[in-house]
Structures are given as structure tokens and as C-alpha cells.
Records
---
Amino acid sequence: MSRMRTITLIVIHCSATPEGRSLDFEACRMEHVRHRGFRDIGYHFYITRDGEIHHGRALERIGAHCKGHNRHSLGICYEGGLDVKGQPADTRTPQQRQGMLCLLRQLKRQFPHALIVGHHDLDPMKACPCFEAAKLNSELLTEDNAEESHPQNLEVEPP
Ligand SMILES: [Zn+2]
């Protein structure tokens, strides 16, 4: 069992799969193994159009998804990112949006200081993930507030 790495970034990607086409988890994994020469899929999570979250690399292991930023990051990829004409587009299905938020909420619990960014934010030459991923940081905050049915600050200031 290897030690957990320090995680400062959660990087969102798209698979650059046009609408109407599919690239399931196994196909994505094989693409990375066969064509890019990786030992395993480069991402830690892959979210298919049906919203299902597939586990790729173990979190302890350094991914292969964002040049120069792999060591301290996690990589999440959603299936899609291109419209029917092959142009960059936010093609996330409602199930994918929900799955992504759910996954990010869990990860933020485990890595509270990790910042969510898009691949594009780290490499402006890429359109990936074809939506403003950094907005997810505030989306999660709004969700937390909406969910505040149980007290979160049990350890309030001493009297
Ligand atoms: Zn990417």
C-alpha cells in the first residue's frame, strides 16, 4: 500500500469524443495503453454519458493527463467534449453533471485544499474540457450551503 500523495489540483478533462459517438471506459483505457504507451489509463476517474463513475488509476498513483502537473493532481475525464461537427462543446449530460458534482464533493472531503481546474486553465493551447471547470469550485460551495441540514462546525470556538 503506497502513501497518499499531496493533492493540490483536481484537473477536469474531456475525452474529445463527438456527440453521437461513444468511448466507454474500457475503450478509453485501451487507447491510453495501446496508443500512448501508458501502463494503464492516465486518468483517475472516467465519467461516461450515463453518469457512471469508473475508477481508473488508484489515487496514490501519479496519473498521466496533464503535462507538468501530474505529480500533485488527480485527473477526471468525462466522455464527450465535442459536438456532432467535432467542435469543442460542453456535451455533459445531466447525469454526467450530477455524477461529476457527486465525485468532486467526495474528493473535496478527502482533499479539502485541492483546487478544481480545467485542463485548459493549465494549458491554454487545449480546449479541453470545453467548459469552465473552475466554476465547479463555487458550484460545490453553493451545494454545500443548500445541504446544510446538519451542523458542520461542531468544534466551535471555546467559550
Ligand atoms: Zn485534457
---
Amino acid sequence: MLISDREHDDFMLMLASGIHEAGHVLAAREFGFNVEWVSLDPDFLRSNPMAIENKCASGFPVTMTITSHLLTPIANRGCVTSRDEWETIRRYYIECHAGPLAEIHFNPHFQIEAGQRDFEQSDGLLWHLMKPDKFRFKRKRAAFIKDAQTFVEQHRNTIFYLGVEIHNRRTLFANEIDAAIAYAKEQAASMKEAA
Ligand SMILES: [Zn+2]
């Protein structure tokens, strides 16, 4: 079956939010961060107490990743003091960027605003930890962005199928997420075999 470029673009546009959140969810779980839920459902998002508490209850899609217990002590200190802490920051940075980068990968109509909050959160933390050294900040940032791009490229098929799953189910809770990832990995693997 052949579909037109227009149909393909419209299809990707429809899946864009699911794929964006799939990037966050997969990176979070691969790095061992807990994900409380992921949702595309505005009614859920506007009324969920955790979304309200975290000021992300506008109704736009959210992946509720639990990282504050790891990041707050480093952020409060204002600098990184060990290799392990840098690895935590790197993973958080990749997790933030994996959403918009996944979306860019599949959605030809991606608008940079769709990643604004993600970019601001991760760059804001990195700058907070490295200021006022602009040179070191830029170098670190470039390295982390490269790692995030590599992550998305390496997991592109899994992210796609996880995105379809999130699109179809609208909200996935903590106890459903790893099974959805395992299913997406199976789909991605069977696609590779068919190719
Ligand atoms: Zn995002």
C-alpha cells in the first residue's frame, strides 16, 4: 500500500504528541528514573493533583518523571561535585531533550515551541550549575545534546511504537509503563526482521 506524502505528514502530525512523550518515557526508564504517569488526556492533566502541584496542569501532554529527590540537593548546592552527579545531570538532560528530539525525528511540521519547556528546564539547570563559565557551559551542553540525539537515533523504532501506544491509550500509569516499553521493543524488533 502506498500513501501520499500529505497522508504521511498528517499521520505523523496526529502521532506527534505521543511520540514526543515516548521519547521522555523511554529515556527516563532506560536511565532508571521512575515515571508516575504519562498522559495526553487534557481532562486527566487538568485535574491530577501531581500535575497541579508541579504546575503542569494546563492540559498539554506531560510525562511525570520523578527526579527532584536526585536533582534538588545538587541544585541547592549550586555545583556538581562528583562523576556520579554529572551522570545524573547528563541523564536528566537527555531525558528532557529526548521528547522534542523524538518529535523532530518524525514530525516534519515540528515547531520549536513544542520543546520550549523541555529545553528551558534542562538548560536552566545546567546553567545554574555552571554559571558564570559560558565556555564550559556551551561545551557541556553541546556534548549532552549530542548524547540525546544519539539516544533518540538508537531507539527510534521503539520510540515510534511506544508513541503509538501512548497515542492510543491516552494515559499510562507507573505499573503499565514498563510493559508498554517491552511491547514497543518487540514491535521494533519484528520490524527490523521484516526489513
Ligand atoms: Zn516534552
---
Amino acid sequence: MEIKEYKIFAPACEASSQEVNYNLTIDEDLTELLPYINREIESARFNPKASFLKFMHEGHKVVLDHSTVSIAKFADEDSAMKFAGEIMDMLSDIKARKDSIEPDNTAFEPPSVIEVLKLLPRKAPCNECGYPACMAFAAALRQEEAEPRDCKVLVGQEDGEEKLAALENLLGM
Ligand code: SF4
């Protein structure tokens, strides 16, 4: 399994960050391997209908979609390519061991709006996220139409990073 080419596809949304994301095009379609990856990687969030899977590795989001591997938030190209090499090794290893792994076709169920809401500051209506209330923002997060860091109240809190990490984990980001 090898990388054929890579492109920067979008800057990470944090205004204070210089981090960027990469799309890697690889030399094979990962679709058939996804149930095996879903079994092997604990943080995997699998969508069998759409044939894509995402997971977190060393604090970076990885999305597998057919022949594309997206990796997020890197300060420079060297660290991104080093990480990409690790991911390719990981996927190649799972592929090599495929016959001894029981495939898992379980789809990731997103958390309820209430579960998401419990992790928000609930100081609304402050509207700093662009939504009329925390409930509406929670619904948008669940639909992947917003990012946790859009809640400026949470970002500004002393334990904000900890809470953001918990929120991202709940949402499978
Ligand atoms: S910015 Fe945060 S606290 Fe304010 S309404 Fe949005 S989600 Fe709620």
C-alpha cells in the first residue's frame, strides 16, 4: 500500500493556528478493508453505508474514504508525511493480518443531542457560536455542521481544552 500523491486540502479552522490538513491518494481502494480496520482500531467510527471510516491517532483525525486518506492538523509537511507513513504501515499491517481478523460492520451511532449538550457551557443565549442557543449548537455538532471550537465560551475556559477533548471524543472527531 503506497501514497501516490498528496495535497493540502484546507486549513484547520482555528484562527490562531497555522496547522493544515492533507489528502493522500493511495494506490488501492480501502472499502473492503474498512470492517477489519473497524475491528482493530478502538477509536474507529465506521459508516458502512457511505463506506468511510474515521479515527483519531496521536491527536490527529484520520478519515479513510475509498482511495483517499485525510489527515488533519499538522504544523509542517515533514511531520505530516511522517504521520502518513505511520498510518500507511498501520493499514498495511491490518491488511496483512486480515484473514485472522473478524470483520466488524457495526456502524458508529452519534451521541444524542442531550449527551452533547451536557458537555457545553450552557450559558446561552450568548450566540457566540453563531447559533441561538447551546441546544441548537449541540444539534449542529451532532450533524457535523459545526466544530466544538466554534463555542468561544468553551475555548476561553480554564479547563476548555480538556472539555473540548471530551467533546471531540464523544463526537468521534
Ligand atoms: S457559544 Fe457556547 S455557550 Fe454560547 S450559545 Fe454557543 S454553545 Fe452555548
---
Amino acid sequence: MRAAGLTPLSVVPELYPMTGHLLHKTLTPLHPFHREFHAHEVVRESRKVWRLILRSPHWNEIRKSVAMIAGGERSRASSVDLTHDAISAIVPGTIEYEKLTSLCRSLISWRTGPYQLGELYLDTEWRSHMKWDRISPMIPRKPNMRVADVGCSNGYFLHKLSLLNPEIAIGFDPVERCWLQFALLQAILQTPNLAFVPMGVLSLNAFPQFFDFILCMGVIYHQRDQALAVRRLYDATRSGGHVLLESLVVPHDEPLTISPPNRYAKMRNAWTIPSAASLETLFRAAGFKDVEVRSFGPLNTAEQRSTTFAPYESLSDFLDPSDPTTTVEGHPAPHTAAVIGRK
Ligand SMILES: C[S@@+](CC[C@H](N)C(=O)[O-])C[C@H]1O[C@@H](n2cnc3c(N)ncnc32)[C@H](O)[C@@H]1O
């Protein structure tokens, strides 16, 4: 018996013609779970992003190029290593280095990584393994978990999470570029049981009490209603499951936040920057138990910097050159912290 109000993905015929083969494939690992989430919602949200891709001459061209390189079994790596800092793969001879490099350039900017794809070193803005090394000791290790990465960008942490042998790992990110980057990488890496759903954190109510573990990093300070976003994470978690939320924070010992009137570190959409202590308050208010916070100190330019595949301004441009403890706007410079709680 399926739960009332939930629609099996298999009886949502729009899904198939909707995304075309390449991007549809990122939803396919969801099929065995179709009785447990709101498939119509997933279809509706995916369609929105799919239409944005089709309407943009830029993204539509790139979509076709990704589909050409990444079609079928031809693109599968003969060997993949997810254990090192750079996720690496031996790329099949059918994928020419020049074509792959040019496609990756057209998909700029690459945020999470790095990746070594054959001869191509995809040097991303963030050296995400440094974040992984900080947060991975906090992650509960249980067999067959259903895990999510909300705000997953191109999926670097999803591939890392797959080292835990989850039943399924689902990445959520509403940005077109992220969907295309994920599809390209996954066509090569073909990590099992990995899905990408182009939806944001507030759409997580399509997955009621679905996950054993949710990772949500670098997202909360972009949310206007942080309590609502944390509530969505809570509601999508099964009883006994955990949510780990990581964020830029301001260095206060008290549960204080700052809401910059204009920009914070040149970001237009950083609404409220929490402190580590205020992350704890948010989690307790949402109903989480066994809440634990870790502060990691200042974010540094060894971890976040511009590269050839992220050739725009980065952290060093966001800090005051004469005083790196403040942003260019005069706010406290970003530190990072993470909070974990059990439902
Ligand atoms: C600062 S990046 C963090 C990426 C990665 N999670 C990390 O920690 O390195 C924020 C990510 O959230 C995504 N994003 C934007 N709006 C979102 C939303 N409403 N819900 C979830 N993610 C969102 C962005 O596309 C981007 O990939």
C-alpha cells in the first residue's frame, strides 16, 4: 500500500519526455523509492529548471554537447578513485581531452572539487576535500543509509558520501549549471545509487521523513527564512536520523547573527550570517536532539581561491587587504562551523 497523496514516479509519464535522456538519468535512481516521495512535485520542479535550460541558447548548446560526450556506456570511466582529495577517473578513449576541456570551460564556474578526469585536472574554486576532512568525522556511519546533500553544486560531496555505501544518495540544487555539471561528471564516474534533483531546500517537503542523513552546507546564510529551511530539513529526516548543517559564521561566542544591510563579502544574497552558537539555537528550536556544534576557525584562501575553471573573484577579493579579519565592507570575516542534530 502506498501512502496517501504520494504518486509513483513510474506513473508520471511527463517525466520521460521531459528531461531527455541525459538529465532524466540523474532522476532514474529515485524510481525504486517512488512510493515514498511526492513524484509530481519532483516533476514540476525539474520541469521548471529544464525549461530554463531549453530557453537559454547558452545552456541549450551546452546541454547538447554534454549529451554528445556523455551518451550511454561509451563515457564510463574504466577506473574511479573517490578516496583521494581529487576525485579521479581514467576516462575512456572515446572522450577526447580537447573536447572535454572545452566543455568544462563552457560550464564555468566550477565550485566544488577538484577532479582529475584523465589528463584534465579540474581545479575548482574550493578545495572541497578540506571541508570534507573537517565534517566527515561528524557523519554517522550506518549501513544502507538514505542520504542527501542539499545545495550539492556539482556533486563532489555526494560522491564522497557514496563511500558510506548508502542505499541512495540524492543531491539537491536548483541551479541549471549544477545539474549539467553533475550530469557530465556522473556520466563518466557512474557512481552507483546517486541521483540529482534540481530543487532547493524549501522543496524538500516532497520527501517527507525520507532520509537517514542530510548534509546541507553553504546554504543557510542564503535563506531569508532560516527557521523554515531548518524545519524542512527536519521534516525530510526519518526519526532517529541526523542533519549536519555547515555554514559561514561570524566569530561570536553568543547566539548572535549579523544581517548586513547591503552585501557581505561582496555577496548580494547573504541575508543573515549566523554565529556557531546561533546554529545550535536554530537546531534546538526545530526540535533536534543531541545537538553538537563545531567551530573550524577562519575560512582561508588556501581553500577558496580563483582558478582557471573558476576565473572570477574569490575569497582574497572579499577580504580587506589591510585587515583580513574583516570583509571589504567592514564586517567580521567569515569563519566556518557545523552543527549536527538527531531527530
Ligand atoms: C556556497 S555553495 C555551497 C556548495 C557546497 N554545498 C559546499 O558546501 O561547498 C551554495 C550552493 O547552494 C545552491 N543553492 C542555491 N539556492 C539553493 C536553494 N534554495 N536550496 C538549496 N541549494 C541552493 C547553489 O547553487 C550552490 O551550489
